[in-house]
Design a protein that fits this description.
This protein has 334 residues and is α/β, with parallel strands linked by helices. It has 2 domains: 150 residues, Rossmann fold (3-Layer(aba) Sandwich); 160 residues, Rossmann fold, CATH 3.40.50. The protein has 10 helices and 13 strands. The strands form 2 sheets. The chain has a 7-stranded mixed sheet. A 6-stranded parallel sheet has the order 10-9-8-11-12-13. Strand 4, helix 3 and strand 5 form a beta-alpha-beta unit.
Amino acid sequence: MQEKAMILTDGKAGHENQSRAFARALGLDFEIAPVRFKSKFHKTLSYLFDRIGLRPMWLWEFVPQGFDAMPAPKGMPAPFKPSVVIGTGSGTFYPAKSLARKNGAKCAVVLYPRGYDIASFDCVLAPAFDRPKKARNVVEIPANLVASDAAFYAEGVEKFKDHYRKATGREYSNVRAEAVIVGGPNKCSTMTPEWMKAELDRIFAGDGKGERVERWVTTSRRTPPEVEAVVDSYPWDYRLIYSRDHFNPIPAFVSLADTLYVTAESTGMLSEACTSGRAAVVALDNLNPGPHKFRRFVEGLVAAGYVSGAEGKPGNRKIDLSSQFESVRRLIEL
């Protein structure tokens, strides 16, 4: 009988994608249900209740129409009976545990559920930059969890080849390529036009040295307009300016590029670049000073050889989570 999972989502794509990757890595079929706490007060209560062993389900609710107006279950969908309930992010940790306990399932979460009773989760898959405490049920990983199935990337490459032809007027050929993925500022990073120009000048300084190399770029929904304007001013062989075109070339960049430059605050994109494909990876450092988790994340990847800074030799080691998922299987008894 095929084991199944229930994924609880808080509506954040980065969280939901990690839960999907978790289920797929274990070969689990899954259903997805959007959930939320009834209020901030109810979420605060969940920390207290969890620590004293109380896990009532009335603190949270299924979102009736989903976060994107898609149907969602009001309770455990019958006859669906999961072996494991999965959640990523603080909006799902407690609901996943309370739902799992009610239905006799295992509870597995991604990211470190700080503030909750760690010992009563069946499995915690936590990135090293979260600084998880050592425990029997905590499995540490070097980066965020990303999808790694070959079919996903193969489909992305085929879509990119079609988009490349439409965007450039040329058929894609198997060329050496350097690709740049530009994110955007957050509370631990900045992104100015001046900084972007300096980084791109350094990347383009290699022109004319040796064999022909194509240069590709994509911006994102978080990229400031003034930074997009700087990016757009360079002579790219392929460009995707997100404010004009929402196509996603990243699966193809990861699969086809020889070198990937990724802005350092983009933890999801750095994780994907370090996990899949063959590209050497360079982090473009736009991080604020200080010992925050984004800095810890990049420094950990550099120390392990997955990534380099802009001045160093690109990191070309890839993340292999096979041993970690063997531990996960034991913890949730698959």
